[in-house]
Amino acid sequence: MHNNAKKDALQKIVTLAQNHDITLDEIGAHLTKSHLKDKSGKWLSRLLGYLGAAFIFGGLALFITMQWDALSSPTRVIITYGPGLVAFILGILVLKDVRYEKASTPLFLKSALLLPTGMFVFLNEYADGDDTQLAAMIVFGILAIQFLIPFLAVKRTSLLFFGYLFWNGSLGILMDRAEIPGEFLGIALGLSIMMVAWTIDRTDHRAIAPFWYFLGSVGLLWSVFDVVEGVVPWDLLYLPLTIFLMLISTRMHSRTLLLVSTFALLGFLGYYTEEYFADVTGWPIALMIMGFLLIGVSAYAVKLGQKIKHETLSA
Predict the structure, then answer these.
(1) pLDDT tens for residues 283-314?
(2) Contact at 8 Å (CB) between 248 and 240?
(3) 133 near 173, Cβ under 8 Å?
(4) CA-CA distance, 209 to 215, in Å (whole number)?
(5) Greatest distance between any 2 Cα atoms in the chain
């Protein structure tokens, strides 16, 4: 039924075009112009909406700052936590209407900024003790649950992003309180974040995967370098690690991981050359060798990048 109606409509369009001597180019130009007009109108409306929200947020923050000393403890909590909670609830409600579901992301962003502020204010006003680290771990843990549980129901990417962000914040503080050395904390978190990013990259929420690839790989490589720096010959292990990450980036189809691992490899080559060859007679030769290595690495990185692009398009 639908196909017959579509065929009849197309036939009418053809008949009108023939009767009025309208070419295909003219039809295409008119459709393009109308599409661009609609798109520009939506862009302007969205821009004004974001500007209006920014003014509201800025005015609220300015008012709170100016009147802070004159406010009572309950008022301070309500005025900081309340708007965040309202924004979070509105973000959930607008998902029920397709016309307004895009407004959920800025609403969740506002709630992610205001909710922890309000919770820290509550703890500052009513809780005893001065353990800031414990307070942050509790706040981030509660917010991780608050964002991740609704995500399981509505499957909104922004909820997953903020929930996982708070989760890593709480987990990192917990590991630090367990007196795990900073380098090993970074390695553990970096590896876990990269594995979760790979899992996310295989779902409909893959838009946030590059951010987590970047964060996880930077944390991992930075921490490993802190462990092996200046320790002969273990510092050489950093070289195969960066090469391995470059290779695995093709398996993950991640240009972000490829970029980070390539820069880490180039940085390590610079460090190693300066550390062990700067004061020897062969320093100029070492510089030339490093130059050839850099050219080779950059060419290989470009080749891997093209491979990732091809595999992504083929998938």
Answers:
(1) 666 667 766 776 776 666 667 666 666 666 55
(2) no
(3) yes
(4) 10
(5) 86
Distance CA 273, CA 182 (A): 27
At 233 the pLDDT is 80
57, 84 contact by CB (below 8 A): no
Is the model's pLDDT at 221 over the cut of 60?
yes
Name residue 300's amino acid: Y
By CB atoms closer than 10 A (0-12, 13-18, 19+), residue 36 is: exposed
How many angstroms separate the CA atoms of 241 and 59, rounded? 49
What number of other Cβ atoms are within 10 A of residue 286's Cβ? 17
Residue type, 143: L
pTM: 0.74
Distance, in Å, from the CA atom of 150 to the CA atom of 108, rounded to the nearest integer, reads: 12
Region 59-87: what's the mean pLDDT? Answer: 85
Residue given tokens 């610079």 in the structure block: 270
Q: Where are the domains of the chain?
A: 182-315
Assess whether pLDDT exceeds 50 at residue 40: no
**Which backbone phi and psi does 122 adopt, to 5 degrees?**
-60, -45
